[in-house]
Amino acid sequence: MSERQGVLVLAEAQEAQVAPVTTELLGLGRRLAHELSSALSALLIGSGVGGISQDVIALGADTVYVADRPELGTFNSDAYTAVATKVCREAAPSVVLMGHTSIGRDIAPRVAARLGASLSTDCVDLRVDQDTGRLLQTRPVHGGNALATIASRVHPQMATMRPRSAAPAEPDPSRNGRIIPVDTSVLDIQARVVETVREEAEGLKLEEARVVVSGGAGIDGAQGFDLIRQLASVLGGAVGATRLPCEQGWVSPSFQIGQTGKIVTPDLYIAVAVSGAPQHMAGCMGSGYIVAINNDPEAHIFKLADFGIVADYREALPALIRKCQELVSS
Amino acid sequence: MNIIVCIKQILDPEMPPVKFKIDAQAKKVIAPEGIPLVISPFDEQAVEAALRIKDAQEAKVTAITMGGQSAKDAVKHVLAMGVDEGIVLSDEAFNGSDSFSTAYVLSQAIQKAGEYDLILCGRQAADWDAGQVGSIVAEELGIPVVTLARKVDATGGTVRVERVIPDGHEVVEAPLPAVVTVSSELGQARLPTGRGIVMAARKSIPVWSAQDIGCDVSRVGAGAARSEVVALTLPIHERKGEIVSGETGAQAAVNLALKLRENRII
Ligand SMILES: Cc1cc2nc3c(=O)[nH]c(=O)nc-3n(C[C@H](O)[C@H](O)[C@H](O)COP(=O)(O)OP(=O)(O)OC[C@H]3O[C@@H](n4cnc5c(N)ncnc54)[C@H](O)[C@@H]3O)c2cc1C
Ligand SMILES: Nc1ncnc2c1ncn2[C@@H]1O[C@H](COP(=O)(O)O)[C@@H](O)[C@H]1O
């Protein structure tokens, strides 16, 4: 157990760049590696990803393991699990970090099972316990109603990190690091992706928007979302939703914000006819300002917001849209 | 086709947040009185996925749950939905099991239950929200796993899964036997039928112990857990919750816009 050393981050590429969540993991990993007086390494899996290994070094990795092969260009659970397990066995880190993403949440339990590791998923904070050197893993439980801090009894200590819960690393192009190619001859592929269907909504990407206007179940129909869209458009923002409007097909499923949807951290989050369930708030808690519009004065969301108005959205939104238009254009 | 569904009974995840209480000292959640336990919603949807397959072809669906005294109620509920058999795994030795031990216990039980083609789990149990057990069951059994399904079709030795990804979905095919974890996008689970409730009441539900399923007890329970909870707290929300008023809803909205401008938020 004591022979294991260092922090290893699973790096994800997104549109030929380092994914935002990876930049966050590298910032966090650097800090943890420093506290553990050890090195930071990263594993980059994909096709034609060699080019960004230098960026991963600039963002803090001392060593980058690169598994570059055409079959790895799209995510495959079996192949990524095999590669990550192999590298974790060889590099023997004491801490392994992945993003709580479509990829990380899929392979982390499998890799942990193969390594005999511990695993905390969806962490929002990781610290080193100064007395024991153990990694303290804080994660929301019960949908966000409580926060548990967990410590491992075995190594490696694995964690997946909720996007947008750690500060991103600042690149330093003068940094040097080693690049080590990974032998990918054995991938053990059983399950295959035979088709990928993108349903990306038109307009601004939710995760990149500075303003997000979300509609909840109280919007009561696809039509009501016209007002949500108008307000978002006036403020140069994107549209989000709670789970029900997505389930009902009022908006695309990719609009869902929350624990099982997207995590957003805009400067301004306006929640309209949203009750403030912890599983939804998990996706917007890190926003700069939260504004609530709800016709129930007792709605829980008012406790979680900076500003709120008690009003029927059908009455409030047209006035709000008009006033905002006037203010932003003046 | 033999389908196994793993279900877990939990505190209602959608209970009003004000009812949620913890004992920080004991690092435990206090179950509120008068709020009945439920089947984790994703697990109910995993049952739905199994029943949809059974609607279309010859299939036997078995539900397995590891839990305490009340776990039988969860099994009764899914039997009434249309599940054929239910098994409860209960033993003091299981108390305090982590995801790895739970997956080990489930995989032992699955092997004892007989032949299996497809194992369905929820994407995560909506109490600790770990999202690990299904994938680890697959690792224990040495079979493939596809996570986050919104649609599951199984025919001719292959499972075809629509897997949710952030901007759409991908279609994944895996040879059977396989594990599939089900996400909420699958859609609503059906309700128990009157006839189902009558049938379920008549059904005997076996309870298997650690010994019954040949568990190595050093691999289960609190002693085998790979990690421990060192603190449990309530989250702190530091927002001021200022209500902006107005004579009418429209006036309040105008005042809100002015407030946001005043604070340079818009
Ligand atoms: C494991 C799990 C994961 C989940 N993941 C997510 C997730 O990722 N994202 C998510 O959003 N949810 C998620 N949920 C569901 C979540 O628990 C809540 O059920 C959901 O967020 C509630 O959505 P809502 O606020 O839109 O609806 P409701 O709780 O029904 O609230 C609607 C609100 O609208 C108000 N209202 C009604 N009419 C009007 C009107 N005319 N004008 C103004 N206000 C009005 C009402 O007062 C009420 O407060 C999850 C649940 C579970 C169990
Ligand atoms: N005690 C249990 N009994 C039966 N199935 C379980 C149990 N715990 C977890 N599962 C299954 O594993 C899934 C994932 O659980 P978890 O990893 O705890 O989030 C759940 O949705 C269930 O399908």
Overall average pLDDT of chain B:
96
Largest sheet report of chain B: 9 strands, mixed
Structural class computed from helices and strand pairing of chain A: alpha/beta
Strand content of chain A: 25-35%
Uncertain spans of chain B? none
Which short descriptors sum up this protein?
heterodimer, A: 330 residues, alpha/beta, Rossmann fold, 5-stranded parallel β-sheet, 18 strands, elongated, B: 266 residues, two-stranded antiparallel sheet, 15 strands, 28% helix, 28% strand, globular, binds flavin-adenine dinucleotide, binds adenosine monophosphate
Short summary:
The complex is a heterodimer of chains A (330) and B (266). Chain A has helices at residues 20-35, 53-58, 77-91, 104-115, 225-234, 243-247, 278-281, 301-304, 313-328; strands at 7-11, 13-14, 17-18, 40-46, 63-68, 95-99, 118-123, 125-128, 135-141, 146-152, 157-161, 178-181, 192-198, 211-215, 238-241, 268-272, 289-294, 307-310. Chain A is of the alpha/beta class and 330 residues long.
Strand-helix topology:
The complex is a heterodimer of chains A (330) and B (266).
Chain A: E1 7-11, E2 13-14, E3 17-18, H1 20-35, E4 40-46, H2 53-58, E5 63-68, H3 77-91, E6 95-99, H4 104-115, E7 118-123, E8 125-128, E9 135-141, E10 146-152, E11 157-161, E12 178-181, E13 192-198, E14 211-215, H5 225-234, E15 238-241, H6 243-247, E16 268-272, H7 278-281, E17 289-294, H8 301-304, E18 307-310, H9 313-328
Parallel strand pairs in A: 1-4, 1-6, 4-5, 5-12, 6-11, 7-11, 14-15, 14-16, 16-17, 17-18
Antiparallel strand pairs in A: 2-3, 8-9, 9-10
Chain B: E1 2-6, E2 9-10, E3 21-23, E4 28-30, E5 38-39, H1 41-56, E6 60-66, H2 71-81, E7 85-89, H3 99-113, E8 118-122, H4 133-141, E9 145-155, E10 158-165, E11 168-175, E12 178-182, H5 194-202, E13 207-208, E14 227-233, E15 242-243, H6 249-262
Parallel strand pairs in B: 1-6, 1-8, 6-7, 7-13, 8-12, 9-12
Antiparallel strand pairs in B: 2-5, 3-4, 9-10, 10-11
Helix pairs in contact in B: 2-5, 3-4
The complex binds flavin-adenine dinucleotide and adenosine monophosphate (AMP).
